[in-house]
Amino acid sequence: MKKGIHPEYKEATITCACGNVIHTRTTVGDIKIEICSACHPFYTGKQKLVDTAGRVEKYLRRYKLKDDNSKSSEKAS
Questions:
Q1: How far is Cα 21 from Cα 14, in angstroms, rounded to an integer?
Q2: What would the 3-class secondary structure string for 11-69 be?
Q3: If 0-12 CB within 10 Å is exposed, 13-18 middle and 19+ buried, where does residue 26 land?
Q4: How is domain 10-76 classified at the architecture level of CATH?
Q5: Which helix (H) or strand (E) segment is 74 a member of?
Q6: How far apart are CA 15 and CA 29, in angstroms?
Q7: Where are the domains of the chain?
Q8: Residues 2-29: pLDDT tens digits?
C-alpha cells in the first residue's frame, strides 16, 4: 500500500434509534442510524409498519376507488 493516500481507519460506534450499540471500525467515525438488525422487521419477524404522511392509506384509497369505479361502470353497461 502506498503511504499517504489512504484515509485513517479508526474505532467507531454505530448507535440505532432503538438503543442498540455496535462497535466497529470505519473511516467515517461515529454513526447514528434509524433501523438496525435488532429492530428491522425482516430480522425480527415482527411486522412493523412505518407509515409517513399516510402513504399506505393513500395507496389503498387510490386503488380501491379504481376498483369501485370499474365495477360501477360495468353495471351501468
A1: 6
A2: EEEEEECCCCEEEEEECCCCEEECCCCCCCHHHHCCCCCCCCCCHHHHHHHHHHHHHHH
A3: middle
A4: Irregular (4.10)
A5: helix 55-76
A6: 12
A7: 10-76
A8: 888 988 889 999 999 888 899 999 999 8
| Residue recorded with cell 399516510 | 54
pLDDT in tens, 51-61: 666 777 788 88
3-class DSSP assignment, residue 7: coil
pTM of the model: 0.48
Per the structure block, which three cell numbers stand in for 19? 438503543
pLDDT in tens, 36-54: 878 877 666 776 556 666 7
36: amino acid identity, one letter:
C
